[in-house]
Design a protein that fits this description.
4 copies of one chain form a homotetramer.
Chain A (H helix, E strand, L loop, with lengths): L2 H4 L3 E7 L4 H11 L6 E6 L3 H12 L11 E5 L3 H5 L4 E5 L5 H9 L15 H25 L4 E4 L4 H11 L4 E4 L3 H17 L9 E8 L2 E9 L2 E2 L1 H11 L22 H10 L2 E2 L3 H5 L11 H6 L7 H20 L13 H8 L5 E8 L4 E2 L6 E9 L2 E4 L3 E2 L2 H23 L2 H8 L10 H14 L13
Parallel strand pairs in A: 1-2, 1-4, 2-3, 4-5, 5-6, 12-15
Antiparallel strand pairs in A: 7-8, 7-13, 8-9, 8-10, 11-13, 13-14
Family (chains A, B, C, D): Belongs to the glycosyl hydrolase 4 family.
Pfam families (chains A, B, C, D): Glyco_hydro_4 (PF02056), Glyco_hydro_4C (PF11975)
Protein name (chains A, B, C, D): Alpha-glucosidase/alpha-galactosidase
Chain lengths: ~475, ~475, ~475, ~475
């Protein structure tokens, strides 16, 4: 790849995207980026969805407000998508929302509530069991058809998806990207406005050191132009710990399934001293269920939302209708840069300027106190054909203890998925903090039923008859 | 030290022993060991208790059945005890049984039961907070008065006592000794009798690889004269999992606070695949309280005992009376070798033959998957002035996850004790699995009350008014 | 420190500088930097030299071409210099050029030639022995008087000076800075001009991964705007391996003691496959003396210079005369930005923009294959109050073997200097590759004489009578 | 394996042995061991040699002085030998003495002398290049035909042979055995006799801690029944440093190619403070050639022998003649226990008693300061189906520096052999200390010629035309 030629001829394989949201975001980001052009091959197990995205994407070419020229082409095989690609973007839904319904809501029978259910907890673990074989398959295809491509993953559970890629093809050049940390940077920017009257701070100006695992990352150093933000954050937490901080952006935790009033984050700061850097809905799922998810009333007190899967199903329906309108041209495509960094990363990897940001990659020593090779989230320097982690140091032992039980549990989950080993999977399941109030027998019973509901994706497993 | 002279002139400092049992055991073991003779200096914060032991010990000298000649001398200061000593044995009760009563029984208010309460769990943690400063003080004295002596610790919480010694004086030559693993070797010997009709197997003939932390050690390899014992143990567990295995030795779990029917051990084997190598009363305390200690009825089903502190108080009274009789000569001292290995270790360290056994020492790489320098229990080769750990390997990830949460929690407890930092101590406390059903607020409330009950030993701490 | 106030009030302690060159460079760089102002306290064991620098520095204030306003003040004690300082810059000459004369030229008696003699080799090692105590003393003062200041060291031997600072005061915030890598970046820029006709490439545009130890660093990845530079460098080496590459800059290896024709660098690339990133004069000293420094004729063939100490003495005289002229105002001070990065680092550490560059700091895992805590040179991200190394990976084993023998030898040298242990120092000395043709007896004899010549700086050593 | 059955039915595959000496030693050791019996399958690329050994071995069965009953059978393929075997013993000559003649004597053209030439140095390195592919092949066969067998290797270069086995088949259960350390234990026993009048000390009573790599191991702790031997050894060295110590055993360095007067060992102790634990002929080859192997006169002064390959050729001829006599029964087979530990190890691995001894196995943390996975020599505990290294600690940095340059060089040699990469092999070759007085050009020339002489064993290499 050479900037003088290749930036005009970048080839991207987009895996997934049938659920529309993420694919449209990429289209928007590519359309508004002047430095790149090329081709996007769209692959989805639902070819029609990919084809509709092809139509939508290609409609952009003639528009005067579009500065990045891209061809979109839906293809019918992974092989076709990958062959010749410089970049591979993965953003899939593992299984359908029916499986996710079981992941999220079945545990409620046992009094176990989940706000998202896609990372850890009973839902995240079972989701991982059905997702890992898919990522093994993708990694094998990448090894064969595009071994030198850079792979950007957006799928959850992020840690285990990325880990499965590296386990299958250790030389893969893959990074897991997630915007949750950006949200915390924005919160710190809001804090500067509220407490100091400094307006319009860009989240990128908030310099942070990040360490942890995806959706359970922590900030142990934060500054803004030479000012240490920790004393300020301490004040901020004191002020808003009880009431919560709603912020100025649109959306409110009571009527938006993705918002919160940051009370979980503030409580973790008061108890442990560092800034937890993910949305409260995610953070809560990493703690014992007596803490923030004890029951729906408690969740309301903590002022964050439980995202019901029926909302996701409804939302999907609306997106399909919108997709029809966009594909036919009835509705014009709105260019809304997403704030995601995928396109920035592509530019940096092509040699168009260095980027320092948080990524999910195997631990090569960047995070002490966590086993090597497990996937961690820390800052990295991204430059031409290169992602080099920045040494992040070590979490304090007490916070590290919260984190590594998930790290080890994820390792066991990975081994169980690769070996289709139900006993081993159960050993991880019963150690999940969200199940800390169940007896092992109850946990085993729940696990059996959850597995059964996702059996379609568990080829080779020996499951009980239902 | 040279065997030709020094074995006649060994000097031992015995710290503690006022509670009698352990001191008398040592007297018995020394009296029946022909290869050693010398002097034991007895130091206890209760001088009278030490003095009574002096009288009892010195009465042994004239007896014809005593082959090891030792002088006993009670001394009034640690300095006196340590000066000139080749070995230091530590076996103290940190605080009194009143504090232990709070450790063990106060959590019952919150539905948290403990079978021992001296290692982990709320009781073990608070006990550690008051014990660590005592061990810091002992280590400082050893550094000054007997830096080259070998130190053998029997006090619980074993891991943190040993860790505190090394943290204070890194060059210390200390080992923590515990007989719990021996009990599991004996169980395997009983198994050979029951399943194979092989009688009188000595526990030392059961070759094992041990790894874990004190009272939560695991065996991943066991053999007897060239026979792998794992397939046999699997059969054994299948047979006795439900009923429990009572064994042939005196004592039964229903009327002996120290016995069990091994059901916890068997259950852990069925769930995790390795042999847990400690008494069930200890093992149960390392797991979430929904597992084996949910309530007294559950404990009875699992067939092990909760040791009430009032029993300890009563027992102590009986020992004091016995002590009076022994000191005055009314009752003769019975020579009963204890089966402990302290004297064997002393011999090995003096160059009288190599010994391979399990010890608690800092992790220098002998146990993978656990941070370096934390105290672990694995096999070691003990020889002249030398204790070298044998590489034990790594626990499977799922078991390791059970173990390391305690390892990290103990590290935090250590830091909290050294820094007299209540907030930090609470961070460890609320992560203990025995408290997994409490809310953080309940845990904090319990902690505050427990600390208050042990405040006499928490100099320098800022505690709430009661 | 806060950018809104502190950039106007930066306080720098400058230790050394009596030899003028480096101090004037800093004055130039500060005078041309608009974002900073404040005060520089000048401390040198030669107070008069510091005072002359005070005069020279303060003369700049009124000049219209000076945009950075600084007060200069010579002080008489280290304590005075350090108290209140935000930054400490160390640039001293350890001992005088008389000692250096012995370091560099005495080994010639044994056929051992050195091109610089300040890093490794017999000269570098003996220089280290007299420098380490000075840095121990500086570190102790920093610990007492300015523990939070950032320390920037320019003194050689860089690795051991920096290591001595951290050994003495482990919490010190010190970085060792060196421009040798910049020179190699410039060479790559020249290569782009010569082979591709691309002009005016700034060295900062050459993106590199650096790893090794100071003056023996290697580049294993280099790119320019999305072009991998390794294939090009291979062509470049093929073309200029025999003739050498003189470059276009002023100075030629035949009449400039600091220039070379890069033949050593090219030869190392042909033999080992990576780009050695320091001047040839330095590189040659790390290899066995049969390679590039066998004798003066060989050195001429390799087209680099041996820098005689008499040149340094003469040069010093000229600088003193120039200093007199500058101080009196007879000669105007010329503003020549140095290309050093000290001031850029100060800006980054104050929060004025992130900087990624190569620094010498303890290995916290950034360079695999080299012991932790030894000082290595790799890239780091410098931001507000923070220097975080970027993971550099590992050198290929064969190159690593060239490097680590020096790493270990430097560790032994450090221990010897701290313990004033001549036997131990000799164990390092006889392992230096530049002495590989001597017998141990010859090496010992040479060592004794060299030590004797630097005895004034070896307080507490037991040296042979001369 | 169970002792009650298997000790009667042990199956051993013996690979090599055509050169007779080692095979006869094994026969002797097996014949005099009462606890074992079974079958030995003999495989050699020279079938006739193996067959002659079959005849010789089977002649032992009827003898009254033979207590261990073994059947010997020569087989024609590795597959046959390995199938069903419990143990595999490897003792081969890689190539012939013609290749070894080049290894040892060709470097003499450049003034480089070697006393053995089979471990490191130019000879050892080239020998490794031709041996590694053979061991790769053996490991592949073991993986296929006897993956659970224990493999005992006696072939040199020990480190790289063992490393090649593990690299090819990581689950292999292989140990490298060497008697050189035993010789040093015997020297210490002699010392006890000479200095203290203690007679008949068995080498096994000398308790030592061993660490290093094969033929370059070091003892940092030695005791005899509670007496530290270091002060005594220091006296011993002072007494015999100049004259050498001849010992009382038969053989003298002047007329025995395998003896020495231990002057190299004593000199290393004086210079570095630890006891080097191998024969002087081996030790000398690890140091720069200016130290002990400068020229034949120097070697004579150091009182050890250079073993000429023509002696080996002559000796081989004598052994063949002896073999004829033994096979035909003309000469009776003498039972001479070898003092090797192979049979003791077999017993321990079968569960017949624990053994602690020095072995060559991959570094799993038993030796700090040396990369993990490289093969090191330290103590291990050998028990039923189990070899567990004992933590040996770390060599002092200065000695470690002598050792690890060979460790890294051997890693490069391994990679070169596996990749048939001449350039890489040369990178190792030119770093060998025995070549420290050559220029790189001379070294390259020598290397090319040596490779050419061993080309028959370098399939796939691109070698220069001769």
């Amino acid at each position: 790849m050479n900037k003088f030629t290749k930036v005009k001829d970048v080839q991207i394989a987009y895996i997934g995207g049938g659920s529309r949201g993420w694919a449209w975001g990429l289209m928007s980001d590519l359309a508004t980026e002047v430095a790149l052009s090329g081709k996007v091959k769209l692959y989805d197990i639902n070819y029609d969805a990919a084809y509709q995205n092809e139509l939508i994407g290609n409609r952009l070419k003639d528009r005067v407000d579009v500065v990045g020229q891209w061809d979109y082409e839906a293809v019918r095989t992974l092989e076709e998508a990958l062959t010749g690609s410089d970049f591979v973007i993965i953003s899939i839904l593992p299984g359908s929302f029916d499986e996710m319904h079981s992941d999220v809501h079945l545990p409620e029978k046992y009094g176990v509530y989940q706000s998202v259910g896609d990372t850890v907890g009973p839902g995240g673990l079972v989701r991982a069991l059905r997702t890992i074989p898919i990522f093994v398959d993708i990694a094998e295809h990448i090894k064969e058809y595009s071994p030198n491509a850079w792979v950007i993953n957006y799928t959850n559970p992020m840690t285990l998806c990325t880990r499965a890629l590296y386990t299958t093809f250790p030389e893969i050049k893959a990074i897991g990207c997630c915007h949750e940390v950006f949200g915390t940077q924005k919160l710190l920017a809001s804090m500067l406005e509220v407490l100091q009257g400094i307006e319009n701070v860009d989240r990128r100006e908030i310099d942070i050191n990040v360490l942890g695992i995806n959706h359970f990352t922590w900030i142990d150093k934060a500054s803004y132009k030479g000012t240490d933000l920790f004393p300020l954050y301490s004040q901020f937490v004191d002020k808003y710990h009880e009431s919560g901080f709603e912020g100025s952006e649109e959306g409110h935790w009571m009527n938006n399934h993705f918002k919160s009033a940051e009370r979980v984050k503030f409580d973790l700061f008061k108890r442990f001293g560092l800034i937890a850097a993910a949305g409260d809905r995610h953070l809560a799922e990493f703690m014992p269920n007596t803490w923030y998810l004890k029951n729906p009333e408690k969740v309301r007190e903590w002022k964050f939302g439980l995202t019901p899967v029926k909302w996701r199903k409804k939302n999907k329906q609306e997106l399909i209708e919108k997709s029809n309108r966009l594909a036919s041209g009835v509705e014009p495509f709105e260019l809304n840069p997403t704030g995601e960094e995928g396109v920035d990363m592509i530019k940096a990897l092509l040699g168009l300027g260095e980027l320092i940001t948080n990524v999910n990659i195997p631990n090569k020593g960047q995070m002490n106190g966590v086993p090597l090779e497990t996937v961690v989230e820390t800052n990295a320097v991204i430059s031409y054909d290169n992602v080099r982690p920045v040494l992040a140091g070590k979490l304090p032992d007490s916070i590290n203890n919260l984190v590594i039980r998930h790290v080890h549990n994820q390792e066991v989950t990975l081994q169980a998925a690769l070996g289709q080993d139900k006993d081993l999977a159960l050993q991880a399941f019963i150690q999940d903090p969200l199940l800390s109030t169940l007896t092992p027998e109850e946990a085993a019973e729940l696990f059996e039923e959850m597995l059964s509901n996702t059996r379609e994706y568990l080829n080779g497993w020996e499951l009980q008859e239902v």
